[in-house]
Every structure is written in C-alpha cells, then in structure tokens.
Amino acid sequence: MDPHNSLPQEQLEWVISIRGKLKEARQYAARKPWEKWCIYRVPCRLREVQESRKTYEPQTISIGPFHTGSEQVLDMDRHKWIALNQILERTGQDLNLYLDTIKEVEEQARAYYQQQFVHLSSNKFVEMMVLDGCFILELFRCYPGSGTKGNPVFCNQRIIDDILLDMVLLENQIPLFILDRLLRLMHTAGNPEAFQKEQAMTLALNFFNPEWLTGKPMSIQEFNELKLSLEQEECVHVLDVFRQSLLRARPQQGTNFRHQFQRRVCDKLLPGWLKRWLYRLHANRVPNRIPRRGQVIHRVTELREGGVKFRKQNTNCFWDIRFKNGVLEIPSIWIQDSTMTILLNVTAFEHCHMKMSDAVIASYVVFMECLIKSQKMWATFTIVESFNIFLDMILKLLTCSKAYLKKC
Asked: What are the alphabetically sorted keywords of the record (predicted)?
C-alpha cells in the first residue's frame, strides 16, 4: 500500500512538489554546469563596500549580457553598430554568415556564464555576441593609428582608455573563443592563412599586459616570450588574458625562497602563517591557511624596529615579494586612477573561478594589508611611484580585502 495515499491532499501535493525539486537538483548536479563557468556576477560580499561598487560596473561600454541595456552605457551601442558595418563593408561578407556562425556555438557561450539569462532570447543573445565581439576586434584592429575613419570613438584617447578599463571588468566579458571565431570569418574574406598567425589572445595582449600595472615598457623579446607562454594556456576571456600575463611575467631566478629567510629574524618578527604566506606568494600557490581574526600581524613599523629593512625590487612582477638577509624586497607598482578597479576585478575573478588554485593577486592584496595599517606607516614606506594616489587607493583595497577574507 502506498503510504502517500493516506496523506491529506494538501500534504500530498507538498510532498510531490519537494520530490520534483529534488529531481531537478539531481539533474542539475549531473550536468555540472559550474565546471564551465568563467564569467561571474561579483559576489555581494565583495560588492558591498560602498567605495568599490562602481568598480565592477561598466561606465562607458557594456560587453556581454550582465549590463546590456544599462542606461549609462547605451550611448556606446551606436558605435558598436558602426564597427559591425565597417567590418561587413570591408570584407564584403553577409551579416547572416556571422549570425549563423555564432548561433552554432550559442549553447557553449551561454555555458560560460554563471547566470542563465533566460530573459535573453536566442536571437538577442547571438546578436549581442556578434555586435560586442566585432566591436572589440575592430578596436584591436583600428587602434592605434590606422583605420580610424568612420568611427570617432577610435580617434579619442580618453574614450579608448575608458573602454579598455571596462573591458577588464569581470562582469563585462564575452568568451574568447567567440572573438576567435569572428576573427576567422574576417580572415576568410582576405587571407585565410592569416588566422594561423593572428588570434584574439595575441591581439588582446597588445593592450592588456603587465605594463598596465608596472608602468615598465616591455621589450620585443619580453613580449614575444610572454606571448609564447600564453599560447600554452587556454585563456577564457580578456580579463583572463590580462591576469595570465601578470603571472607569466616570471620573476628573476634566484635561490629557493624558503631558504632565503634568516631563521633568527623570522622567528622573532614574523608569525608562522606570514612566513608560509611569503613563500607561497613567491611559489605562486594559494595559502592554505587564512590568518584568524585577532591573530597578531607584525606591521611595517614593528618590522623596522626589529631590524628588517625594506627595499624596492626591480621586476615586472609586482607581486614578487622576497625576503633575504634581513631585507624585505617589494616591487614598485605604478598607481593610476584605474589601478584599484584592475586589482579588484582580478581578485574577484580569482575568488569566483572554481578551477583557479592560484589566487596570487588576492594574496598580494591581503599581504599588503598585513604590512600596512595606517597612513603614518606610509610616511617612510616608499615603494610606489605615485604616493598620494596610492594612499587613498590602498585604504579602499584593504577594506575590500577584509570582505575577501571573510568569504574565504
């Protein structure tokens, strides 16, 4: 006898409803959609810091579905259509070719997003991918210096800078493979062989590379080595290209970082977790232990009083912090108005991405919080190029890093 037959009708419907939800949950878990996610909505805990809210939202142009149709970026949509029209006129290709090509991979592209965007029809989603992707590729092709006629956006350096900043926002991404497919179409109209020599990752790297944060121009050899290194990786979007470029700009070779600590100085001045953290920062691994609330963290002033010296290190890796012979070497970082936005979005990507085991940039931000606690400490701690701007930025960053620690 079915025990459910004896249940009141209302309770029976309730049980059936719960079983239906369990079935949906099993089906969802079996698909494992989270394994493909790489474009996320920034978590509320990171977003809740008032000063950083707009650092996650585009101010000039929307890329992808999260902010499409937002009022503050609508003016740029007409320039997307101009860019698409320029491509079609230049290649002599039909619009349907682009729409059909992206339609074939719509499901794959949707799978990249943590949010399902059920409100976007298939046609609207494909239109958005084509429009945004073509604009990005036309920007890469036209800027700087050539092919700028017909679209005033590509002639305005201020607008270009604003667009580039919006393009590294975590919520403002489209899959990199979409750009590659569109790029392949463009090349089939001219030289089909060219695609083998030019990919979206390489084009993005011309704009988004370590020079943006270090302020140090890369030599041709350094850039080529970086490009070859990134070709071995599967970058998923522009922000990922930028982050990977930061990590692939390898620090100078030296002796094992673990053995660079002088036992006498470390035992007296640095708590165990901080020694391990410094090592893992250098070794490009995530610390497996987060400092507990209330745990003593030695500050810059305390380390100075204990005999530790601070020195600026010359390297393209701003996160490459070293300790040797009583000297803590910290690379300089070039501070601009955009620096906080860049660091926060890279940190948010590291925080969200399930496949990512190397939260190097987030570790850097948290480590700097451990060293610096007040404005007074910065009076003698001169490792940055633009002191006044950095002072204001670091205080905001530290507030955000606390939210990151809580989430961890």
From this structure: Coiled coil
The angle subtended at Cα 306 by Cα 214 and Cα 388, nearest 5°, is: 35
Give every CB contact of residue 206 below 8 A, 6+ residues apart in sequence.
140
List Cβ neighbours of 237 (8 Å cut-off, separation of 6 or more). Answer: 38, 39, 112, 173, 174, 175, 176
Three-state SS annotation for the chain: CCHHHHCCHHHHHHHHHHHHHHHHHHHHHHHCHHHCCCECCCCHHHHCCHHHHHHHCCCCCCCCCCCCCCHHHHHHHHHHHHHHHHHHHHHCCCHHHHHHHHHCCHHHHHCCECCCCCCCCHHHHHHHHHHHHHHHHHHHHHCCCCCCCCCHHHHCHHHHHHHHHHCCCCCCCCCHHHHHHHHHHHHHCCCHHHHHCCCHHHHHHCCCCCHHHHCCCCCHHHHHHHHHHHCCCCCCCHHHHHHHHHHHCCCCCCCCHHHHCCHHHHHHHCCHHHHHHHHHHHHCCCCCCCCCCCCCCCCHHHHHHCCCEEEEECCCCCCCCEEECCEEEEECECCCCCHHHHHHHHHHHHHHCCCCCCCHHHHHHHHHHHHCCCHHHHHCCCCECCHHHHHHHHHHHHHHHHHHHHHC
Mean pLDDT over 100-121 rounds to 96
For 358-369, what is each residue's pLDDT tens digit?
788 887 877 776
